[in-house]
Specification:
globular; four-stranded mixed beta sheet; 14 helices; six-stranded mixed beta sheet; alpha/beta; 51% helix
Length: 276
């Protein structure tokens, strides 16, 4: 039975929408469709906290995360990113939140299924791929994209891409920031399953219902044990996140942001200053 009634514990999450489509399953919707669910200050902060709230909710045995409208998440909101470029205080704040998104998803024993219904970039992509099981629209496009902005691949990628698709593919896509579609993401092992667009959410919900109907402790402990692979990667992740934040304080990030806003190819100072 579907129960869409709000729960007080989720009332503070103004940029996320919550539904209970079946017993034990919580549907979390990134809810800013007019901006393709781009992560601004509020959504980023809320994503850094929501998985703790979910893990503390005894009524939830499985989670599905998806995006409202035609995108999962189009990455960081450019106005919000502009607040960070060259600003130490804002960079430290964002670094903590970005780290918390990854760490809380690792530590959340409740199984998480992502329904990647459209483009997924940046912090939104971190949520999509840190999920335990990922279902993607075979035509959806995704990219880590940090290199395009002029900053190191932080968020999540160093922690999980080599485990999912191997070092060769991880290096290719993280160093080039090339897009790949859902079919290719499934082929290289970056996601669990690619299906036609109309089947993404129904498939993810079926998987979540199966998980919710299984033995709760065994399911959670299996996830906890598997995630020790990711915990071993946390020093690598912390380094990548720190490198990303250092880059936000330099000139390449300012040029990368300007190029994205102006829809042109970036000319990074580090490429042209002759210092290399």
């Amino acid at each position: 039975m579907t129960d869409n009634s709000p729960d007080d514990r989720y009332g503070a999450y103004t940029h996320l929408r919550f539904e209970r489509p079946s017993d034990g399953v919580l549907l979390v919707i990134l809810d800013d469709p007019d901006r393709l669910n781009a992560t601004g200050a509020d959504m980023h902060l809320q994503l850094s906290r929501v998985f703790r709230t979910i893990d503390d909710d005894p009524s939830v045995r499985a989670v599905v995360v998806t995006g409202a409208g035609r995108a999962f998440s189009a990455g960081g909101d450019l106005d919000w990113i502009a607040e960070q470029v060259g600003d130490y205080t804002q960079t430290i704040r964002v670094m903590k939140e970005a780290g918390d998104i990854v760490r809380t998803m690792i530590d959340c024993d409740t199984p998480v299924v992502s329904a990647i219904n459209g483009v997924a970039v940046g912090a939104g992509l971190a949520v999509a791929l840190m999920a335990d099981i990922s279902v993607i629209d075979e035509d959806a496009r995704l990219t880590d994209g940090h290199i395009r902005l002029g900053v190191a691949g932080g968020d999540h990628a160093v922690a999980i891409w080599p485990l999912l698709c191997g070092m060769a593919k991880a290096k290719y896509y993280l160093l080039t920031a090339d897009f790949l579609d859902g079919r290719e993401a499934e082929r290289i092992g970056l996601v669990s399953k690619a299906v036609p667009g109309a089947e993404v959410l129904p498939t993810a919900l079926r998987v979540a219902e199966k998980l919710a109907a299984g033995p709760v402790d065994a399911t959670r402990m299996t996830k906890r044990a598997l995630n020790h692979w990711l915990r071993q990667a946390l020093p690598n992740f912390e380094a990548s996140l720190a490198y990303e934040m250092i880059n936000f304080l330099g000139p390449d990030a300012a040029e990368g942001l300007a190029a994205l806003r102006e829809k042109r190819t970036a000319t990074f100072p580090s490429t042209t200053d002759g210092a290399r």
